[in-house]
Design goal:
The radius of gyration is 22 Å and the shape is globular. The protein starts with a helix and ends with a helix. Helix 2 runs antiparallel to helix 6. 77% of the residues lie in helices and 0% in strands.
Length: 334
Amino acid sequence: TMINTNNTIISWLRNNKIIVFIIVLAFVLRIAMLFAVYSNAGDYSQFIENIKADGYYDIGYTLANEGVFAIDDVEVLDSVRTPGYPLIVAGFLIAFGSVWFLLIVQIFIASIIPLLVYRLSLYVSEYKKIAYASALVFAIEPLGVLISVRLLTEIFFTGLFLLFTLFVFRFFYSYTNKAQILNSVFAGISLGAATLIRPTTLYFIPFIIIAYILYRFISKQIINWRSLSIFAIVVILILSPWYYRNYKTYEVIKFSAIPQQVMFWYLAPSVLAVENDIAFRESQISFFEKEGFNGDDNFTVENASKYQERAMEVILENPIGLIDFLLTSMATFF
């Protein structure tokens, strides 16, 4: 069995030399970036200061040492960030005493992402050259290389989201009941895990269910309601502990305050910046001062609705600024 497994691996490597080269290239670039960032820092403490961002490492550190989901003050719990990445950081700190092994794992995942992109591209296009080009872009893209060695959610989230997308394609195109159930379970696990890391995918459950029903209806195939139910149940089971934590702590059934924070911290000041033809930071400071918000207030799922309502008022009062901002954002994105 061991010999057969080794032969299978060797055969796969020989038959996929281009994608193997891209994976190795991605890994080498990220290892080089890790050494460069550490050399620039000079020591471990400064290295951590340089690569941590958005409070995820701080929460992980507090979790590992105090058992509390907070950035620094253990009396002030955090409900803006979701628990996935801080738990990963805390786990590696407890197991290894540092984040070195976490960064190696992160680099490994980032190096496998081009393979996932390659496999997904083959679902969209039959041309392997397009799939190889897509994988290569993900492997060498400078920002992606840099993010791979930072303590941020992007790499774990991207890897899990691409896995989810791959299993969704397989779920849609599966013809046997067993294959549909297995792929729905794996799609649910990967989507649930991705959402625990970043709440961007929180509303994908109804979207996937509707898309599956429409696809099966248009292609005149039987709708597998059992698989759909399993998919939804798996995601809900994975997310429910965090919903329960927020309900017990704040008596509010919400997953995260990030959407409301983005509206108040970024969207409303951006619209005002465009409307008043000033820099974003200047607009944000002016907006916070006007609202009596010092930027250090404890933004939680409990009070998030209040900030969301105020942000919506400002946005709706400035429709021209909103339209201009959206068009500008779309243009710069593409």
